[in-house]
Request: fold
Amino acid sequence: DIGFDASLNPYRGCEHGCIYCYARPTHEYFGLSAGLDFETRIMVKEQAPELLREALMATDWEPQTVALSGNTDCYQPVERHLKLTRRCLEVFAEFRNPVTIISKNYLVTRDIDVLQRFVPWQGVAVTLSVTSLDGDLAGRLEPRAARPVRRLEAVRQLAQAGIPVGVMVAPIIPGLNDTEVPSILQAAKAAGARRAGYTIVRLPHGVAPLFEAWLEQHYPQRRQKVLNRLRDMRGGKLSDPRFGHRHRGEGVFAEQIKHMFALTCRRLGLNTDRSTLSATAFQRPGPRQMTLF
Reply:
């Protein structure tokens, strides 16, 4: 129920510290916590570019779109120094293998020069995740991610550079940011976004108690309303892991959000471009020349 079969995540754990992040429980695989450990003990795949090259050179690699991020943000703050994502993009560009990127960090604009290399052969699409236009709310939900105004500026710069860009209104948290959906889409369109999508917040495993505690600390007056709305969308629970249901929910409130989103996109002219990424330009580079001694 996601739009890709392969993804690449240069980092495990994420400094952004988004309280709702569905990837938090993956840290527990290593005996670490889904809470502070996830935000502060970041695992770095130092050989990601080299291993990526090996994978693309393998004869059994089937050219296809690869999603950068999908689990944790490939442009989280440590990327500024390590540049693993940029180096991976350079490998993808050399092979002409298409990529799609989702991030909530302005740092993606640093790599516009590389991303432009993908454009002539329909090889790239970038999505900025925008949860709220309220800087205070965004700062509490996503303490070390770029603020909303910076993400919209990233959309603007990418669009001006000719790079297909969209927004993901994600996650929508009923009772907290759901009323902002039309205004987020309006701002995204004004910045140059061509397409938009959304997800309803999901709270798997250890994320639910973390999120409940966060609500109690920051929005105690809304806590019960938010949790009740989520249970209405998740069959009485805070999380529904079923494919096809986990991202959108079901019931009256889920339908209201679905229709509001669709109507706003239609009014703004979003999602009218049906072009897709293409892997037809894929190429493997020839053997490298031996170093002369």
Notes: The CA atoms of residues 26 and 155 lie 29 Å apart. The two ends are 53 Å apart (CA to CA).
